[in-house]
Structure formats: structure tokens, C-alpha cells
Amino acid sequence: MATHPLQQGATAALEGIGKRLWGFPPSLMAPIVRQLGPLRALRWAIWNMPRYERTLKRFGGLRTHLLCTVISLINGCPYCTYGHAYAFQLIHLRERGYMFPLDEHAIGQLRGMAPAVVRHHLVEALRKVNLHDEVPRLERVIALTAAEDRRPTEPDDVRLAHLVRMFAVLNSVGISSRTAPDQAHDPINKNAPLKQLYAGLRAATGT
User: Fold this and answer.
1) Is residue 43 part of a domain?
2) What are the C-alpha distances in Å from 54 to residues 25, 51, 118, 134?
3) How many domains does the chain have?
4) Which has the closest alpha carbon to 205: 124, 121, 89, 95?
5) DSSP-assigned letter for residue 188
6) CA angle 167-173-178, nearest 5°?
7) Structural domain range at position 71
8) Does residue 121 lie in a domain region?
9) What would the pLDDT profile of 77-93 be if each residue is shown by its tens digit?
């Protein structure tokens, strides 16, 4: 079936943003355009991406990708879980010099489990590497993701609630389109030597 020029243009624009930021055209962009429609997809991106980038700057990559990962786990999206868990792994290695206890595949296996189980495994892993400060926000974003009422009630809730709303759309499209995971959803994805180092370390340890 032929693709409408407007749909082609919207897809190219969104893929172009991903390629500029992360070094590759994200596989989810075409399904987003198909499901939301070209104009709505562009409006959605224009509204959400700058807010996401401000959160990324405020929280830093480690915290932001951890939160995006856990939201996607609770919602059950393989695509977003992998993209943000992999980004988290690379940033963790770059900033701390060693690997996180759970790799992106082990984290992905938590998908579909109860929020309390997801929380238990991730909090245990965070505490093993002295990332205790990340636990309160992780717990809060799990609560917001699982809640019916997601209105902000605490200072950080405004950013967390936006991530939850934003990923509700991304995760829904990722699940319904069955989009296969691609790469790390962060500029660190363009760091080929770091990715090679990470892959080598994982292979050497069998994790």
C-alpha cells in the first residue's frame, strides 16, 4: 500500500531527530506516525521532546534512563525497555567504570512482572552499586505508573508525571506495533569504543 507524502515526511522528520541525537533512525518513529497520524505525531513530538530533554539535563542520563526503563517495564514494552536499559548500562559504565549487576537483557526479563517484583529486583541491584539515591525516585515513578491518578503531588512529580504520560504513548505504540528493539536511546549510542568495551566486558563475564 502506498504511503501518503505527509506520512513519509513526518516519519522522515522524526527519524531525523533520532538520528541527530542518537546516531540512528529509531524504529518506532514510523509506527508512531501510522498510529497517531502525521500531524498529531509531529505535534506530540514538538510538545514532549523538549520537556524530555530538559528532564535529561536536570536528572542526568543515568537517572533519566533508569526511570524510562522502569516505566516501560511496568507498561510491558520490549522496545522502550531495551533502548533505555541499554543506554543506562553504557552511561553507568562510563561514569562509574564498572558494570551494573543486571544487564539490559536481565532487566528486560522483569517485563510483565508485578510492580513490587520489578521494584525488588531493581532496588536490590541499585543498592549493590551504592546507587541508593536513585531508589526514592524509582519507587515514586513505579507508583505513578501503576496508579490511576497520576497528578503531581510532590516537587519532582511534575517531571516524573510527564515521563509517565510520554511513555504511556511510546509504550502503547511499541507494544501494538511489535517493534523490535534497536539501539541505545541516548547520544552515548554514538560512542562506538564504549559500546565495544561494554560488549567485551559482558562477554568476558558471561552476563
Assistant:
1) no
2) 21, 5, 27, 18
3) 1
4) 89
5) G
6) 125
7) 61-205
8) yes
9) 999 999 999 999 999 99
